[in-house]
Amino acid sequence: MVKVALCFYGQPRYVNNTSVPESYEKYFNRPDYEVTTFGHCWYSQDAVYKSTSWMQSHEDYVVDPNTINTLQSYYNFDKFLVERPKTFMFLNDEIREKYKKINHSINFSFSELRENNILSHLYSIEAVTRLVPETFDFYVLCRYDTVITDIPDLTKSDPDRVYFPDCGDFSDIVIILGKKFLEWPRHTYSMSQSQYLPIDLFIPEHFKKYVFYNYNFTREDTIVCPMFGHIARSE
């Protein structure tokens, strides 16, 4: 029996799109898995989630008022931390000024909206993984708006590796890691706030990558595999 912790994080968009929970049911409801679900999310009844330049939809999202009950009915969380949306920025002015100098295309350069969304993303990953005990074989970092279309068989997977999807380096579609790597997601936000990370692009994947390497993990600790999904952009 493989013990699996599903760790949901972030902004709960398009919660009435049942293809998302159905995909998790398909891949994780197995007799040889013992699955426990945890969650952190940003929610208030008057919240509006702002679009950013890397999203496929460029419309702001008005939160469904029944979001929390809907998520709980889907996933039956063992622990579920809900916080009102916050505005984030880098607290160290020197670090912030360095990031403001990153100059790429509009999708990869500094902006206050992207700064807020990246830090919110990292904070939520850190928050949910701090809810989870160190008693599982695998920890799966999950988004509320991702439809899973392929996943490795965890009974044949190595808990001493981190599994990334083959759609991009440190992609947030879904990430699977063993217990030895748990301190990495538990410090994605706090380390990003406390020190400058030599990122090339102002995107969450690069922050996660450099926090990972700061823990002296290496590329040899990772496996890129056919593990894919797509983001739901409608109800």
Helices and strands in order:
Elements (H helix, E strand, L loop, with lengths): L1 E8 L9 H10 L4 E10 L5 E2 L11 E2 L4 H9 L3 E5 L9 H8 L11 H20 L6 E6 L2 E3 L13 E4 L8 E5 L9 H7 L9 H11 L7 E4 L3 E3 L4
Parallel strand pairs: 1-2, 1-6, 2-5, 8-10
Antiparallel strand pairs: 3-4, 6-9, 7-11, 8-9
Helix pairs in contact: 4-5
Q: Give me the Rg, rounded.
A: 17 Å
Order of helices and strands: EHEEEHEHHEEEEHHEE
Uncertain runs: none
The total number of structural domains is 1
Structural class: alpha/beta
Mean pLDDT: 88
Nutshell version of this structure?
This protein is of the alpha/beta class.
Question: Please, could you describe this protein's structure?
Answer:
By secondary structure, the protein is α/β, with parallel strands linked by helices. The chain has a single domain, classed as Alpha-Beta Complex (Spore Coat Polysaccharide Biosynthesis Protein SpsA, Chain A), CATH 3.90.550. Helices cover 28% and strands 22% of the residues. It contains six helices and eleven strands. Strands 5-2-1-6-9-8-10 form a seven-stranded mixed sheet. Helix 4 crosses helix 5 (188-194). It is globular. The N and C termini lie far apart (35 Å).
